[in-house]
Write a structure and sequence with these properties.
This protein is of the alpha+beta class. The chain is built from eleven helices and 16 strands.
Protein backbone atom coordinates (compact mmCIF):
# COMPACT_ATOMS: atom_id res chain seq x y z
CA UNK A 1 0.00 0.00 0.00
CA UNK A 2 1.32 3.44 -0.91
CA UNK A 3 1.58 5.62 2.19
CA UNK A 4 2.82 8.84 0.60
CA UNK A 5 4.00 10.78 -2.44
CA UNK A 6 6.61 13.49 -1.97
CA UNK A 7 8.07 16.15 -4.28
CA UNK A 8 7.15 14.00 -7.29
CA UNK A 9 10.29 11.94 -6.74
CA UNK A 10 9.79 9.50 -3.86
CA UNK A 11 6.93 7.20 -2.90
CA UNK A 12 6.92 5.18 0.35
CA UNK A 13 4.99 1.90 0.53
CA UNK A 14 4.13 -0.51 3.34
CA UNK A 15 3.93 -4.22 2.57
CA UNK A 16 3.66 -6.79 5.37
CA UNK A 17 6.80 -6.32 7.51
CA UNK A 18 8.53 -3.73 5.32
CA UNK A 19 8.30 -0.02 4.60
CA UNK A 20 10.18 0.94 1.45
CA UNK A 21 10.70 4.11 -0.54
CA UNK A 22 10.82 4.01 -4.33
CA UNK A 23 12.88 6.78 -5.90
CA UNK A 24 11.21 8.02 -9.07
CA UNK A 25 14.21 10.24 -9.85
CA UNK A 26 17.93 9.87 -8.98
CA UNK A 27 18.92 10.55 -5.38
CA UNK A 28 22.20 10.72 -3.49
CA UNK A 29 21.92 8.33 -0.52
CA UNK A 30 23.98 8.03 2.63
CA UNK A 31 23.05 4.92 4.61
CA UNK A 32 24.27 2.50 7.24
CA UNK A 33 23.22 -0.51 5.12
CA UNK A 34 25.73 -3.36 5.53
CA UNK A 35 25.49 -4.41 1.87
CA UNK A 36 24.79 -1.28 -0.19
CA UNK A 37 25.70 1.29 2.45
CA UNK A 38 27.85 4.38 2.47
CA UNK A 39 27.46 7.08 -0.14
CA UNK A 40 25.65 5.95 -3.30
CA UNK A 41 23.86 7.47 -6.30
CA UNK A 42 22.55 4.28 -7.89
CA UNK A 43 20.02 3.22 -5.21
CA UNK A 44 16.42 2.79 -6.37
CA UNK A 45 14.86 1.64 -3.09
CA UNK A 46 15.51 2.41 0.57
CA UNK A 47 13.66 0.18 3.02
CA UNK A 48 13.13 -0.58 6.70
CA UNK A 49 12.27 -4.16 7.60
CA UNK A 50 11.02 -5.95 10.73
CA UNK A 51 13.29 -8.98 11.07
CA UNK A 52 11.97 -10.33 14.40
CA UNK A 53 9.73 -9.56 17.36
CA UNK A 54 11.19 -7.39 20.13
CA UNK A 55 11.28 -10.12 22.78
CA UNK A 56 12.05 -13.86 22.94
CA UNK A 57 11.72 -14.49 19.22
CA UNK A 58 13.05 -17.92 18.29
CA UNK A 59 13.03 -19.86 15.05
CA UNK A 60 14.53 -17.14 12.85
CA UNK A 61 18.12 -16.63 11.78
CA UNK A 62 17.54 -13.34 9.95
CA UNK A 63 19.46 -11.27 12.50
CA UNK A 64 22.49 -13.56 12.36
CA UNK A 65 22.40 -13.60 8.56
CA UNK A 66 22.15 -9.80 8.46
CA UNK A 67 25.42 -9.55 10.40
CA UNK A 68 27.28 -12.54 9.03
CA UNK A 69 26.19 -12.49 5.38
CA UNK A 70 24.65 -9.10 4.46
CA UNK A 71 24.28 -9.94 0.76
CA UNK A 72 22.32 -13.09 1.55
CA UNK A 73 20.13 -11.10 3.94
CA UNK A 74 19.53 -8.48 1.27
CA UNK A 75 18.51 -11.13 -1.25
CA UNK A 76 16.07 -12.72 1.22
CA UNK A 77 14.25 -9.52 2.11
CA UNK A 78 14.20 -8.08 -1.39
CA UNK A 79 12.93 -11.31 -2.91
CA UNK A 80 9.98 -11.34 -0.50
CA UNK A 81 9.19 -7.69 -1.22
CA UNK A 82 9.81 -7.86 -4.96
CA UNK A 83 12.70 -5.36 -4.86
CA UNK A 84 16.02 -5.49 -6.74
CA UNK A 85 18.60 -6.33 -4.07
CA UNK A 86 21.57 -4.85 -5.93
CA UNK A 87 20.03 -1.38 -6.02
CA UNK A 88 18.33 -1.40 -2.62
CA UNK A 89 19.63 -0.16 0.74
CA UNK A 90 18.26 -1.72 3.92
CA UNK A 91 17.61 -0.97 7.56
CA UNK A 92 16.54 -3.72 9.96
CA UNK A 93 14.70 -3.68 13.29
CA UNK A 94 12.35 -5.53 15.63
CA UNK A 95 9.84 -2.67 15.55
CA UNK A 96 6.41 -3.13 13.99
CA UNK A 97 6.15 -1.41 10.60
CA UNK A 98 2.58 -0.36 11.45
CA UNK A 99 4.22 1.86 14.07
CA UNK A 100 6.29 3.77 11.54
CA UNK A 101 5.81 7.52 12.07
CA UNK A 102 6.03 10.14 9.32
CA UNK A 103 6.79 13.83 9.85
CA UNK A 104 7.07 16.49 7.17
CA UNK A 105 8.24 20.11 7.06
CA UNK A 106 8.98 22.56 4.25
CA UNK A 107 10.43 26.00 3.61
CA UNK A 108 10.22 27.85 0.29
CA UNK A 109 9.52 24.63 -1.54
CA UNK A 110 12.29 22.63 0.18
CA UNK A 111 10.63 19.50 1.62
CA UNK A 112 12.00 17.28 4.38
CA UNK A 113 10.32 14.00 5.32
CA UNK A 114 11.33 11.59 8.09
CA UNK A 115 9.98 8.04 8.38
CA UNK A 116 10.94 6.56 11.74
CA UNK A 117 10.50 3.36 13.73
CA UNK A 118 11.68 3.24 17.30
CA UNK A 119 12.10 0.71 20.07
CA UNK A 120 14.36 1.81 22.89
CA UNK A 121 13.15 0.33 26.18
CA UNK A 122 15.38 -2.74 26.32
CA UNK A 123 18.40 -1.56 24.30
CA UNK A 124 18.84 2.09 25.24
CA UNK A 125 22.53 2.93 25.27
CA UNK A 126 24.73 5.94 25.96
CA UNK A 127 27.71 6.82 23.80
CA UNK A 128 30.77 5.31 25.47
CA UNK A 129 28.92 2.52 27.31
CA UNK A 130 30.80 -0.79 27.79
CA UNK A 131 30.91 -2.82 24.57
CA UNK A 132 29.73 -6.42 24.27
CA UNK A 133 31.96 -7.51 21.37
CA UNK A 134 35.04 -6.67 19.29
CA UNK A 135 35.20 -7.40 15.58
CA UNK A 136 38.27 -9.45 14.62
CA UNK A 137 39.45 -11.05 11.41
CA UNK A 138 37.64 -14.20 12.56
CA UNK A 139 34.37 -12.48 13.32
CA UNK A 140 32.83 -10.95 16.45
CA UNK A 141 34.65 -11.74 19.70
CA UNK A 142 32.58 -11.54 22.88
CA UNK A 143 33.91 -9.22 25.57
CA UNK A 144 31.85 -10.89 28.30
CA UNK A 145 29.12 -8.25 28.43
CA UNK A 146 25.41 -9.04 27.94
CA UNK A 147 24.34 -9.56 24.35
CA UNK A 148 22.37 -6.53 23.12
CA UNK A 149 18.60 -6.97 23.41
CA UNK A 150 16.15 -5.91 20.71
CA UNK A 151 15.53 -2.20 20.48
CA UNK A 152 16.44 0.01 17.52
CA UNK A 153 15.79 3.52 16.22
CA UNK A 154 15.70 3.56 12.42
CA UNK A 155 15.31 6.84 10.55
CA UNK A 156 14.80 7.35 6.82
CA UNK A 157 15.11 10.98 5.76
CA UNK A 158 14.10 12.33 2.35
CA UNK A 159 15.12 15.78 1.05
CA UNK A 160 13.72 17.46 -2.05
CA UNK A 161 16.89 19.41 -2.81
CA UNK A 162 20.44 18.26 -3.40
CA UNK A 163 22.96 18.15 -0.57
CA UNK A 164 26.69 17.82 -1.17
CA UNK A 165 28.33 14.62 0.16
CA UNK A 166 29.79 16.60 3.05
CA UNK A 167 26.44 18.15 3.86
CA UNK A 168 24.90 14.67 4.03
CA UNK A 169 27.50 13.75 6.65
CA UNK A 170 26.58 16.89 8.61
CA UNK A 171 22.90 15.89 8.28
CA UNK A 172 23.72 12.49 9.77
CA UNK A 173 25.26 14.14 12.85
CA UNK A 174 22.18 16.35 13.17
CA UNK A 175 19.95 13.26 13.10
CA UNK A 176 22.01 11.81 15.96
CA UNK A 177 21.70 15.03 17.98
CA UNK A 178 17.95 15.30 17.36
CA UNK A 179 17.50 11.70 18.43
CA UNK A 180 19.56 12.20 21.59
CA UNK A 181 17.58 15.33 22.48
CA UNK A 182 14.27 13.44 22.51
CA UNK A 183 15.73 10.63 24.63
CA UNK A 184 17.17 13.19 27.04
CA UNK A 185 13.83 14.98 27.39
CA UNK A 186 12.12 11.65 28.16
CA UNK A 187 15.01 10.61 30.45
CA UNK A 188 15.26 7.23 28.72
CA UNK A 189 17.78 5.11 30.67
CA UNK A 190 20.76 3.32 29.24
CA UNK A 191 20.59 -0.42 29.85
CA UNK A 192 24.39 -0.69 29.96
CA UNK A 193 25.32 2.11 32.40
CA UNK A 194 23.61 4.49 34.81
CA UNK A 195 23.48 7.32 32.26
CA UNK A 196 20.68 8.64 30.06
CA UNK A 197 20.54 6.91 26.66
CA UNK A 198 21.66 8.80 23.56
CA UNK A 199 20.31 6.11 21.20
CA UNK A 200 20.39 2.31 21.04
CA UNK A 201 23.22 -0.05 20.19
CA UNK A 202 21.73 -0.91 16.79
CA UNK A 203 20.45 2.40 15.37
CA UNK A 204 20.49 2.83 11.59
CA UNK A 205 19.88 5.69 9.16
CA UNK A 206 19.26 6.33 5.48
CA UNK A 207 19.35 9.88 4.08
CA UNK A 208 18.31 10.55 0.49
CA UNK A 209 18.43 13.86 -1.39
CA UNK A 210 17.17 14.57 -4.89
CA UNK A 211 19.95 15.19 -7.42
CA UNK A 212 20.19 17.98 -9.99
CA UNK A 213 18.02 20.54 -8.23
CA UNK A 214 18.26 24.29 -8.70
CA UNK A 215 19.70 24.73 -5.20
CA UNK A 216 22.59 22.57 -4.00
CA UNK A 217 23.10 22.78 -0.24
CA UNK A 218 26.68 22.62 0.98
CA UNK A 219 25.82 22.48 4.68
CA UNK A 220 23.12 21.23 7.00
CA UNK A 221 24.29 22.49 10.38
CA UNK A 222 22.06 23.85 13.14
CA UNK A 223 22.42 27.44 11.91
CA UNK A 224 21.01 26.58 8.49
CA UNK A 225 17.32 26.27 7.61
CA UNK A 226 18.17 22.82 6.23
CA UNK A 227 19.42 21.78 9.63
CA UNK A 228 16.39 23.24 11.40
CA UNK A 229 13.99 21.33 9.15
CA UNK A 230 15.92 18.07 9.58
CA UNK A 231 16.05 18.46 13.35
CA UNK A 232 12.33 19.16 13.59
CA UNK A 233 11.10 16.28 11.42
CA UNK A 234 13.43 13.79 13.12
CA UNK A 235 12.31 14.90 16.58
CA UNK A 236 8.63 14.85 15.63
CA UNK A 237 8.72 11.46 13.93
CA UNK A 238 10.80 9.90 16.70
CA UNK A 239 8.45 11.16 19.41
CA UNK A 240 5.50 9.67 17.51
CA UNK A 241 7.28 6.36 16.89
CA UNK A 242 8.25 5.94 20.55
CA UNK A 243 4.63 6.48 21.52
CA UNK A 244 3.29 4.06 18.89
CA UNK A 245 5.81 1.27 19.56
CA UNK A 246 6.28 1.52 23.32
CA UNK A 247 3.87 4.07 24.75
CA UNK A 248 6.81 6.31 25.68
CA UNK A 249 5.37 9.80 26.10
CA UNK A 250 6.08 12.70 28.49
CA UNK A 251 2.98 11.70 30.45
CA UNK A 252 4.16 8.09 30.75
CA UNK A 253 7.51 9.32 32.08
CA UNK A 254 5.79 11.14 34.97
CA UNK A 255 6.86 8.35 37.29
CA UNK A 256 9.41 8.14 40.08
CA UNK A 257 10.54 4.69 38.97
CA UNK A 258 10.97 5.85 35.37
CA UNK A 259 13.75 8.17 36.54
CA UNK A 260 15.37 5.55 38.77
CA UNK A 261 15.54 2.72 36.23
CA UNK A 262 19.05 3.57 35.10
CA UNK A 263 20.32 2.90 38.61
CA UNK A 264 18.87 -0.62 38.52
CA UNK A 265 15.47 0.16 40.06
CA UNK A 266 12.34 -1.80 39.21
CA UNK A 267 8.80 -1.50 40.51
CA UNK A 268 9.13 -4.51 42.78
CA UNK A 269 12.51 -3.44 44.21
CA UNK A 270 11.22 0.08 44.83
CA UNK A 271 8.14 -1.19 46.67
CA UNK A 272 10.14 -3.66 48.76
CA UNK A 273 12.77 -1.04 49.53
CA UNK A 274 10.14 1.35 50.89
CA UNK A 275 8.19 -1.38 52.73
CA UNK A 276 11.17 -2.47 54.82
CA UNK A 277 11.51 1.08 56.11
CA UNK A 278 7.84 1.48 57.09
CA UNK A 279 7.01 1.04 60.81
CA UNK A 280 4.22 -1.58 60.76
CA UNK A 281 2.16 -3.95 58.61
CA UNK A 282 -0.79 -1.59 58.43
CA UNK A 283 1.16 1.24 56.84
CA UNK A 284 3.02 -1.27 54.66
CA UNK A 285 -0.25 -2.59 53.24
CA UNK A 286 -1.48 0.96 52.70
CA UNK A 287 1.63 1.86 50.70
CA UNK A 288 1.56 -1.32 48.62
CA UNK A 289 -2.11 -0.84 47.74
CA UNK A 290 -1.58 2.81 46.82
CA UNK A 291 1.83 2.56 45.19
CA UNK A 292 0.70 3.80 41.77
CA UNK A 293 -0.72 6.99 43.28
CA UNK A 294 2.55 7.71 45.06
CA UNK A 295 4.70 6.78 42.06
CA UNK A 296 2.87 9.15 39.70
CA UNK A 297 2.28 12.02 42.09
CA UNK A 298 3.71 15.10 40.31
CA UNK A 299 5.33 16.53 43.43
CA UNK A 300 6.97 13.22 44.36
CA UNK A 301 8.22 12.83 40.79
CA UNK A 302 9.59 16.38 40.82
CA UNK A 303 11.47 15.79 44.09
CA UNK A 304 12.87 12.49 42.81
CA UNK A 305 13.97 14.06 39.55
CA UNK A 306 15.67 16.89 41.43
CA UNK A 307 17.63 14.45 43.58
CA UNK A 308 18.61 12.38 40.53
CA UNK A 309 19.78 15.51 38.71
CA UNK A 310 21.90 16.59 41.67
CA UNK A 311 23.37 13.11 41.94
CA UNK A 312 24.37 13.38 38.26
CA UNK A 313 25.89 16.81 38.84
CA UNK A 314 28.04 15.40 41.66
CA UNK A 315 29.03 12.37 39.54
CA UNK A 316 30.14 14.63 36.67
CA UNK A 317 32.13 16.91 38.99
CA UNK A 318 29.99 20.01 38.48
CA UNK A 319 29.07 19.90 42.16
CA UNK A 320 31.88 18.94 44.59
CA UNK A 321 31.79 15.62 46.41
CA UNK A 322 32.81 17.47 49.56
CA UNK A 323 29.23 18.83 49.68
CA UNK A 324 27.53 15.49 48.99
CA UNK A 325 25.93 15.17 52.44
CA UNK A 326 24.45 18.66 52.51
CA UNK A 327 23.19 18.43 48.93
CA UNK A 328 21.67 14.95 48.91
CA UNK A 329 20.20 15.08 52.42
CA UNK A 330 18.65 18.51 51.85
CA UNK A 331 16.91 17.33 48.70
CA UNK A 332 16.05 13.93 50.15
CA UNK A 333 14.22 15.95 52.80
CA UNK A 334 12.23 17.50 49.96
CA UNK A 335 11.05 14.00 49.01
CA UNK A 336 9.94 13.45 52.61
CA UNK A 337 8.13 16.78 52.71
CA UNK A 338 6.39 16.42 49.34
CA UNK A 339 5.36 12.78 49.87
CA UNK A 340 4.03 13.64 53.33
CA UNK A 341 2.07 16.61 51.96
CA UNK A 342 2.54 18.39 55.28
CA UNK A 343 3.37 22.08 55.57
CA UNK A 344 6.37 21.62 57.83
CA UNK A 345 9.77 23.17 57.25
CA UNK A 346 12.29 21.10 55.34
CA UNK A 347 14.76 21.46 58.22
CA UNK A 348 12.58 19.29 60.44
CA UNK A 349 12.70 16.43 57.95
CA UNK A 350 16.39 17.07 57.32
CA UNK A 351 17.13 16.35 60.98
CA UNK A 352 15.16 13.11 60.80
CA UNK A 353 17.18 11.79 57.85
CA UNK A 354 20.58 13.14 58.91
CA UNK A 355 21.69 9.62 59.85
CA UNK A 356 20.80 8.10 56.46
CA UNK A 357 23.84 6.80 54.51
CA UNK A 358 24.74 9.08 51.61
CA UNK A 359 26.49 8.11 48.38
CA UNK A 360 26.15 8.55 44.61
CA UNK A 361 26.74 4.81 44.15
CA UNK A 362 23.60 3.15 42.87
CA UNK A 363 22.65 0.93 45.81
CA UNK A 364 23.06 3.45 48.66
CA UNK A 365 21.54 6.21 46.50
CA UNK A 366 18.40 4.13 45.95
CA UNK A 367 18.38 3.22 49.64
CA UNK A 368 18.33 6.93 50.51
CA UNK A 369 15.31 7.41 48.25
CA UNK A 370 13.52 4.36 49.72
CA UNK A 371 14.03 5.68 53.26
CA UNK A 372 12.85 9.15 52.27
CA UNK A 373 9.65 7.83 50.68
CA UNK A 374 9.00 5.63 53.73
CA UNK A 375 9.42 8.51 56.16
CA UNK A 376 7.27 10.79 54.04
CA UNK A 377 4.47 8.25 53.66
CA UNK A 378 4.52 7.53 57.41
CA UNK A 379 4.31 11.24 58.22
CA UNK A 380 1.50 11.73 55.69
CA UNK A 381 -1.15 10.07 57.86
CA UNK A 382 0.38 10.55 61.30
CA UNK A 383 -2.07 12.44 63.57
CA UNK A 384 -3.87 13.78 60.52
CA UNK A 385 -7.48 13.46 61.68
CA UNK A 386 -7.23 13.19 65.47
CA UNK A 387 -9.32 15.51 67.64
CA UNK A 388 -7.48 18.66 68.70
CA UNK A 389 -7.55 19.49 72.42
Amino acid sequence: MKIGHYYDSVEPFRKEKIVYAHFLNPHRILSSCRYNGGLREDIEYLYNHQSCEPSNHVGTDLCKVAVGDPERYQKRICSMAGLPYKTSASLGTAANMHNAAIAQASFRGFETIAVTTAGVGSNGARAGDPASYYQTENGAESLGKPTPIAGTINIMLFLSEELSPGALVVASTLIAEAKASILQELAIPSRYSDGIATGTGTDQIGIACLLGTRIQHTDANKHSKTGELIGNVVRESLAQALNLQSGLTPDARRSCIAHLQRFGEKQETFIEGVLKNLPNKEIQALFRNNFLSVNHDPMAVAATQALVHLRDQIASGILPKTCIHEILLTYAAQIVKLVSQKPFETERFRKEIDTFPVSIENKPFLNLIHKSFALGFTQKWENRFEDKT
